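Memo to structure team: turn this sequence into structure tokens by end of day. - J.P.
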Amino acid sequence: MLKKTNANSPNFPLKTKLRLKMLRQGTELILPIIKTDKYAPNVISRYNIPYAAKDSSLQKFDWHYPISRQLKNGIKPTPTLFYIHGGAWSSADKKVYSRLCKDLAQRGFVVININYRLLPEYDLEVTYQDCVTAIQFCLQHADKLGIDPSKLIIGGDSAGAHLSALIAGKITTNNLTINGNIVGTVLIYGVYNLNHLADSKFSVLPPLHEGFKKAKGKSLGEFYHNFSPIYYVTPKFPPSFLTVGMVDLLYPETVEFIEILNANGVKNKSLIFPKDRKDGRHAFINLNSPARQEAVMTIGKTIQQFVKKV
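Reply from structure team:
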């Protein structure tokens, strides 16, 4: 049975809802083969911290803090990565990324691993606002969480990369205000232009387009414009790291976004896996593969470069 909709739910057609339900069920089936967590002796972790007064089970985050930054009388303000998970805005969970976030925290960063409400029960505006609310909540409690507000990085994979780039773009174009400074983004095989959903070869995206088309009607064009990161890139966009494999069906999205960054003079670094690297397929960041290992190492080094330049 599909969950009942609510006031925040888009009026998606049944076909789209069923497609998203299949995606969510498929994600749940492969969870047992993904190492969702691992023991990290150099990281302090706290799980399922609510960030909203009227929270749902998904409006929570995990906190990972490097022991190396701990003081005798407390914790030291530390550069912080806000990580937003992928899953076509409609599936997956922060717990799948716990291992990744701990790997990065061991490199000397606070990592905030964010959950958010999902399609089709909620609209993309709600998903986006949940991520913003989580970041704002953490910054309001920066001292307790060991966050250095002057050295913030935002990142994610797939739909999470979309949301990260969107938030960074809205901040740097003064469409969003936070009490902190975004010094970089980490964007892993993301979607950056919603106008491509209709013609995408990535199987779940065209049904999403049909859902948004029905829900938004004549305002679809405005909706896509407002929620496409490419329209928020200016010379003030943060320095960025992007990674994707050429075998990934979303590879053209990264190519286009890099071109826009370059056209605006935004410093960026990329790790592109060539066509013969089959381990560079979509979702490689969750798998125990050479591509994942190389990407995590490069992300760690790049974040260190981001914070040193502040």
